[in-house]
Recover the amino acids of this structure.
């Protein structure tokens, strides 16, 4: 059977977190309330691409990443990874599947064990999955450290995370994610904490490694300016739903959804001559416990019409590979 | 517009650590003029936030000012007592920090924050103060019904706007904003920057804007100072700085910043990383990473000089 073009297929994905209430509150309000973190999303990630998932706080992008990695259990919907429905796997099968999907988080200092030497941290999963031990493990770690530019490798191997620079730490985290040669890397704000001058370096590294290791990335970010330089396709999320999705150049140059247009226009431009001409939507992101009825963006939308407050628009393909969820 | 509000001369700030002394701000001289927005940019460890804290004399221990002067309203602030500084900070110098919750009293309603400020520095009458507070909060784009909320009931964006409002209520001579939008979502950030720009132009506010975000600086700043490893590398008006940056660090920095308004552009990569401030490189701090480095750069530190009208830099390229 031919290999599907899609490495990941997500359908109807939902994650609702129950709201913690005090005893009195629970007595008074009979109904349980939920944070609709992810509220029904569909998308595919093609093999070898960098798929961007962008949005502001409360959009659900981080939760989506965690659901795909099975760090959270979904409330509803399906995640199919390389043709396999992840929910159908046993604990042991899922554990083995994890070798094929790895994660890079935003804060390298927080995601590294401060008491583990860098080389040991990078090679740790080799030990866990029984892939290599001793000399062989060390050799593979040193090799990976060279590949990510963490040099001189044999010296940095013995350093602890706090002894590395920010950029070096993030390279270590990348090396750790790659050591098992996964298919998918979920990167959640991977360069947000690095210095401005180091970010370009890290982006370049990630693209190079993608080529060298045949990787596919799910790139989660709030930074649309950075996303422009790395993502092939992008989905814009708002309050748990995808409002627009397509090839990056199409979405950026011909944004269809008013929220996408506002988001792109809001990004500060490093050019003092540039003046923002698009008006910003009024107000702020509403509470995800009770999202607005109909289109979630309608209370803030400059183009809202009568039906926007009644029916939630579906994500439809309006141009080739360009999807939008909007009545307008 | 030409009055000197703040004059910093040869300021040095040290942080003693177990491994040695970190010279976080090294011989920095800057003047801030009335009615301008002075952007102070640089990456982590450049000393920009330390400089802001030094002006307010709010350095976290063990940080210490070890040299130089900071003159505000004819007085060297470094000679003032803590009590006198406290009065200055409340009355004449206002702040907007990254996390507004640290500046707002969680036990006090937002209205009281304003009323207290207005009554101390302006109208004594309670009702008049409240009327002014309502007017102010409306100008900030916040519904007046929210005036009696507590700070935690406000969103991050609203709290930051309250901080601008308090600065206005104070009629502050100087506002120090340290990463004011870093914790805000991008649309809220745009709303905040629009508001700040409006109010700054309307009331001729004097602002020191400290940030690593080059886009934010481009939106607001009249002049921009670039810091690296504790030293000033370049200072100019915004347009000349962005159009014709003189210092190789500034050039590298500006070309490595993502620009959403461009298509088909590439990010330049700057090799290396900011230096160790305990043992900074000899000569020019930037020389190990500089694409234009020469022998002199490795041994002798270049002076910070006015190379073109209003455009200062510390670089041997312009010395010969």
């Amino acid at each position: 059977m031919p290999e599907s073009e899609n490495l990941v297929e997500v359908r109807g994905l939902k994650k609702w977190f129950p709201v913690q209430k005090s005893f009195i509150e629970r007595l008074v309000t009979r109904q349980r309330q939920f944070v609709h973190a992810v509220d029904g999303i569909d998308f595919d990630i093609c093999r070898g691409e960098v798929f961007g998932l962008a949005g502001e706080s409360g959009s659900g992008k981080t939760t989506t990443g965690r659901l795909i990695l099975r760090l959270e259990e979904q409330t509803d919907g399906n995640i199919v990874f390389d043709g396999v429905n992840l929910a159908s796997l046993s604990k042991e099968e899922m554990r083995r599947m994890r070798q094929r999907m790895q994660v890079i988080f935003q804060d390298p200092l927080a995601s590294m064990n401060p008491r583990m030497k860098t080389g040991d941290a990078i090679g740790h999963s080799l030990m866990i999955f029984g892939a290599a031990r001793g000399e062989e493990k060390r050799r593979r770690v040193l090799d990976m450290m060279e590949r990510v530019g963490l040099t001189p490798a044999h010296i940095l191997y013995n350093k602890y995370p706090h002894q590395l620079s920010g950029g070096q730490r993030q390279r270590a985290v990348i090396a750790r994610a790659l050591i098992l040669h996964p298919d998918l890397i979920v990167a959640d704000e991977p360069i947000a904490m690095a210095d401005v001058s180091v970010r370009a370096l890290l982006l370049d590294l990630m693209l190079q490694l993608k080529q060298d290791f045949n990787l596919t990335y799910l790139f989660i970010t709030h930074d649309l300016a950075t996303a422009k330089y790395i993502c092939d396709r992008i989905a814009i999320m708002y309050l748990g739903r995808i409002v627009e999705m397509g090839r990056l150049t199409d979405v950026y140059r011909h944004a269809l959804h008013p929220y996408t247009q506002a988001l792109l226009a809001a990004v500060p431009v490093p050019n003092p001559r540039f003046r923002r001409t698009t008006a910003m939507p009024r107000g702020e992101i509403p509470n995800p416990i009770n999202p607005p009825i109909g289109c979630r963006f309608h209370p803030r939308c400059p183009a809202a019409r009568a039906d926007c407050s009644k029916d939630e628009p579906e994500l439809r393909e309006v141009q080739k590979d360009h999807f939008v969820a909007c009545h307008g | 517009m030409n009055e000197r509000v703040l004059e910093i001369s040869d300021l040095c700030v040290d942080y003693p650590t177990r491994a040695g002394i970190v010279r976080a701000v090294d011989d920095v001289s800057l003047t801030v003029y009335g009615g301008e927005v002075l952007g102070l940019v640089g990456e982590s460890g450049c000393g920009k936030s330390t400089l802001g804290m030094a002006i307010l004399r709010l350095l976290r221990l063990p940080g210490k000012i070890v040299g130089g002067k900071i003159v505000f309203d004819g007085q060297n602030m470094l000679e003032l007592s803590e009590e006198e500084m406290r009065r200055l900070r409340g009355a004449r110098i206002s702040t907007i920090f990254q996390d507004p919750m640290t500046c707002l009293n969680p036990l006090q309603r937002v209205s009281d924050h304003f009323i207290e400020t207005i009554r101390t520095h302006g109208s004594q009458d309670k009702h008049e103060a409240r009327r002014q507070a309502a007017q102010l909060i409306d100008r900030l784009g916040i519904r007046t019904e929210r005036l009696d909320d507590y700070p935690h009931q406000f969103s991050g964006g609203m709290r930051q706007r309250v901080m601008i409002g308090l600065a206005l209520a104070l009629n502050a001579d100087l506002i120090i904003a340290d990463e004011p939008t870093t914790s805000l979502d991008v649309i809220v950030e745009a709303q905040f920057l629009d508001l700040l720009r409006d109010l700054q132009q309307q009331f001729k506010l004097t602002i020191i804007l400290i940030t690593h975000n080059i886009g934010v600086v481009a939106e607001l700043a009249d002049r921009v100072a670039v810091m690296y490893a504790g030293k000033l590398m370049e200072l100019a008006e915004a347009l000349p700085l962005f159009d014709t940056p003189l210092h190789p660090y500034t050039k590298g920095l500006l070309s490595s910043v993502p620009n959403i308004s461009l298509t088909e552009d590439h990010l330049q990569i700057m090799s290396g990383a900011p230096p160790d401030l305990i043992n900074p490189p000899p000569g020019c701090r930037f020389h190990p990473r500089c694409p234009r480095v020469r022998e002199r750069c490795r041994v002798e530190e270049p002076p910070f000089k006015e190379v073109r009208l209003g455009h200062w830099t510390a670089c041997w390229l312009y010395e010969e």
Summary: Chain A has eleven helices and twelve strands. Chain A has a mean pLDDT of 92.
